[in-house]
Predict the structure.
Amino acid sequence: MDIKEMLKIADRLIFTKTGKHLDDLQEAVLRGTVQNQKYSKIAEQFNCTEGHVKDIASELWKVLSDVLGEDVNKSNFRSTMERCRFSKVSSVSSNFAQDFVGIGNINFCPKPLPPPQVPQDRSHQVKNPVSSRNRVFVDDAPDLGNFYDRTKELAILEKWIVQERCRLVAILGISGIGKSAIAVQLLKQIQDKFDCVIWRSLCDKPPLELIQKELIEFLSNQQESELSDSGENKRSQLIEYLRKQRCLIVFDDVHHIFSNGQLAGCYETGYEDYGLLFKRLGELYHNSCLLLLSWDKPKEIVTLEGGDKLVRSLQLDGLGIAAREILKEKGLVDENQWEDLINLYQGNPLWLKIVATLIKDLCSGRVAEFLKYDALFVSEDLKDIFDRQLSRLSDLEKQVMSRLATENEPVSISQLLNDMQISPSELFKVMQSLGRRCLLEKKENGETVFKLQAVVKQYVKIEYS
């Protein structure tokens, strides 16, 4: 009997008792047991303590023993699984005597989960049935109305978080592109895969100490009353809970803890510990996922993502043809020119809603009448949005943006160096920062060239000229 088949049977037994499949560490413990691997070696592979691995193993032996009605331990695990291969359900506790599920020659009955419950009193929570085994706290999640097609992006995020079990994921994009919208939709699709789901906005810039306290209290079900005074110890406490449970935590508006007037990803004074938390959660083994929504890419994502590391980032682009639904909802006419309007405003959902309202108010909903003026209009509503995001730029970033706004064609770094009084090293830093803020479009044309999105360019011309 090979290891794969043993793990398959063990997984079904565990699921029978707990309603959860084996996670990566549990599977490693069982695989290591069969291969006579020491717990210390497993701990080294998962970057956790040997004591934690022993605790996981002890829990596994207890669950397997309860299901099979006999003592299961490290020394007899292999022989027990081989015997189970030819056993009947009579060896399984009578508590699991209905709705049998068969695997090979052994039958199991999963304990039925409670019926789905829909939250009744919080209309702005994620509106999806939640089984009572889940604990969901999403009071900070925005109620955004209709969701517009992001099938490809949702599939990528679900693969990263559910299948690959990534620990740290960032959704990035310029203001209005739909970061919160896709995150809310994602929660509807995958929240039943988690024991706990938490959404926390950082727009009011809460200190990390408060965030960690809230998370520990929630994950401990209010049983953790004595918290360490040390920030490092609080992080360790939090990570332990994220190892014991499968949690999805969303931090929205992460850009609010970054400093104004500096390059992208520099933390405001007093908020540097957030970076330490992100780094730890990206590096250390745990069963959970922290999802960050931000205008700017955190430095920890830049450092940790890539290769086989369980850290990812997704930059959202415009909606494309799916944005037609926005124009339809707004009651616009001249459908044959909707695509031109969508392209003009880069398929940004918020920008299109604002300009569609303008067209409705001033052109009676006629897109053709608006487009005949051949002008990219930046309304006061759009200007306010850009003010909030672009006011955060450093002086050098604003200079480079002003230079890019004067060009009709994409510009190379060598062209910028010829035209500006700036050293190559400084320009590289600025261009990298603007890219991490999702403000540049990059193309290959013999050499790498850059440009601003048309709407951003128009704003910069008005404000920086």
In short: Residues 88-132 have pLDDT under 50 and may be disordered. Residues 202 and 253 are 5 Å apart (CA to CA). Residues 50-68 form the longest helix (19 residues). The first strand starts at residue 101 and ends at 103.
